[in-house]
Amino acid sequence: MAAPWAQEAHEVLSGLETRTTGLTTAEAEARLATAGPNRLPAPQRDPFFKRLLVHLDDILIVILLIAAVVKALMGDWVDFSVILAVAVINTAIGMIQEGRAEKALDAIKGMLSVRAHAMRDGTVSDVDAETLVPGDVVKVRPGDRVPADCRLVEAANLQVEESALTGESVPAVKTVDAVGADANVGDRTSMLFSGTLVVAGSGTAVVTATGVSTEIGRITTMISEAESLETPLARTLSTFGKRLAWLILGMGAFMMLIGWLVHGLSGNELVSATIGFAVAAIPEGLPALVTITLALGVQQMARRRAITRRMAAVETLGSVSTICSDKTGTLTQNEMTVRVVRTRAHAYDVEGGGYAPVGAIVRDGAAVTPAPGDDLHSLAEVMGLANDAHIEEIDGRWQLVGEPTEGGVLVLSRKAGITGQGWSRVAEIPFESATKYMATLSQDPSGARHVLVKGALDSVAARCSTQLGAHGVEPFDPTFWDQQVAELGGQGLRVLAAARQEVPAGTDTLPSAGPTGLTLIGLVGIVDPPRPEAITAIAEARNAGIAVTMITGDHAGTATAIAHEMGIIDDVDAPSLTGAELEAMDDEALAAVVQSVHVYARTSPEHKIRIVRALQSHGEVVAMTGDGVNDAPALTQADVGVAMGIKGTEATKEAADVVLADDNFATIEQAVAEGRRIYDNIRKAVLFLLPTNGAQSIVILVAILFGWAVLPLLPVQVLWINMITSVTLSLPLANEPREPGIMNRPPRDPDVPLISAPFLRRILFVSALIGVITLALFWWEHDVNGMPAAQAQATAVTMLALGQLAYLFSCRFLDRSSFTLDVLRGNGTLWWSAAALILLQVAFLYLPFMQSLFRVAPIGLREWGITAGLAVVIFLVVEGIKAISLRRSPIAVRREG
């Protein structure tokens, strides 16, 4: 049914061919057969083989698998087993990172109502919510979860908690009055939405939509349709892998032609050599290295109260250029707090935030203590006693039982020293959306009775004839109070008024039309306060070149005021957009302004996901934070979805990549810094690891091109050196601390290649250096000194291992010399990894089963001394070249590194 919120209730009933007494059982069953059950459909999951093929869609893995098959056809089962094991392990790592969207959908289903109170055959029946159909008439009361989207027919003081759906920080007041057809979800006051919670009052409503047609159903559809984007690191590694694969294939073909045409090598020799070259060139350890580095980052994040649900998200955070954040509960505390008190005589500021009754009340820069009878004391009594909420401390945290706004003014009264002890309530007029005030007849400890009224200024002022001034009661001045409301409203504050009246001791009731002749005491300005740590985090994020954008369901004035206070925008006149304005813009128009607008108000889930997509169209790497189910689609669409762990819904947590266990926005800034550290360390590790592959490739390539009868390295020996250097020597680089000033540089461009030009030059140089030294050593030992092939190959492998160990110390510092004692300090893992490498190499050389498996023979102290000495030479030469590069272009090298 089109826009039922914009039609009168009787028109909606007529359009749905129903009545206030509901459907008959037969009618409901007939409609159920047409409309289908009121539930969300289970998502279809790809079969195992399809998911497996997705993870095998990596050209380097394909080359490894082909090499393994060829080795199997040649009967070389040892090489086949080792190569296949490497490929299988890397594929398994990818397959465990699935299922976020499916879990998000399951979590949303848990929000839906299981039972409903529906009118069937003219009587109220308790029915399965899945059997509801459009046209059913349902009744709701406090504590009920709304079973479907409904148009209200009757409402009595009805309030519904919709923050998970709309982002509103206070319960929505519901009425039967129609609203505009273009009203956003948060403004459709005549509607009840599936999955929201009734907190006060009662109502009767007609079902207008069920299942996937509901607002929550549409969110589910958006989650399932949200695009799963590749992370910047995945894109970079994919590009690198494809380029490397073509290089390997081209060089392998060239090598086979030379070996066949020039040197007349046999087919088996050429195939074995080519496979050895391919295995040498492919960095098999790189996926394991990236996984280990990310896993260590995940552990670091967990210690900082951020739970990472997807490892790659840690690195992606380091590339984030825009953080889109929900306001309520993310940037703010989701705890309504009185900020200011205005009376005719004074202006007060109230310190402290949340529901903890801690904080001073300040006037003219000094804390004040209210005295009985003064304006502040009188106002605090009204706010604390004409109140149905209460607060309690549970496990060190103050929690509210009741409506959030009442909780905020109750805390004000506690800060003013009003406990209500000795007071009793004689009568009351409860708050109603039509009257917009609450009144109580209360008796103080002396027995005197007072009428206490709090509510919206327009409602309370209409019942006042006087006001409390500096010298006592004086005539009411409406102009003054209107000016105060305009000023406070401009600051994004919600305003409540307090009034009171002394009545004779025998008064037992309040007038049915409400009290009159009241004295207005003053106003309070209420806000959902910003998290103090979030303000600092936003400043640090902006300093790091990261834009922060607020996307909220709250009103534009409130959103702009909070954004300015938190430092998201520098001026309250900065451009902002509302949901209605977004609706009028197509995607192209939105993309044109999205980078200059940092405040979006009265938004719906569709708006949030459109904003994220518009930012991504400019190449922005977007992190989206939130806690409500309305945030889930945008969290799924974003490059990094960040959910609140305490106040976040299960649907949001399941859709997110990162869950903040402490709901602290400041943790995101730490996560970004951690992501930058992770990427730096991955680059250091790649800079360290690739020369291993390069050196091995040069050794085999040169041997074939020059027609050597014995290869310096066998394929299985190549795999050994690749794996031990990546597993042992790469670990210290994964644990490297942050570079100085890591949050003073702009976000990394995800399109910048993993290996920049300076990096590539260094990798090629070190590959040639280590490769030439290894070739020369093998030639000297085997061809000149007559050393057996197995022993000469063992010496070559040891040369590669120790050469990489020496090069590791150079890789610790990318933009400064390693000729410093600092290279020996600050990373204890370095020495454990070096020891592990030496022990593994000793096992490789001297254990009989290892000698048999890898076809090597033991070497003596002479060979150990030669390889160790040459390793020192490698370190000195690399550092000399680094010093020349830094002197020539220190800034460029530092930026690229």
Q: What portion of residues belong to β-strands?
A: 15-25%
Shape designation:
elongated
Mean pLDDT metric: 83
Radius of gyration from CA coordinates = 35 Å
Number of helices: 32
Can you tell me the residue ranges where pLDDT is under 50 for at least 5 consecutive residues?
97-113, 890-897
Structural class: alpha+beta
Find the count of extended strands (DSSP E, 2+ residues): 28
Q: How far is the first residue's CA from the last residue's CA?
A: 59 Å
Helix percentage: 40-55%
Could you describe the largest sheet, including whether it forms a barrel? 11 strands, mixed
Characterization of the model:
With 897 residues, the chain is of the alpha+beta class. The chain has 32 helices and 28 strands. Strands 10, 11, 12, 13, 16, 17, 18, 19, 20, 21 and 22 form an eleven-stranded mixed beta sheet that branches. It has an eight-stranded mixed beta sheet with strand order 8-28-27-26-9-23-25-24, with helices on both faces. A hairpin with a 5-residue loop joins strand 17 (437-443) and strand 18 (449-455). It is elongated, with a radius of gyration of 35 Å. The chain starts with 8 loop residues before the first helix and ends with a helix. Residues 97-113 and 890-897 have low confidence and may be disordered.
Offer a few descriptive terms:
alpha+beta; 17% strand; 897 residues; single chain; 32 helices
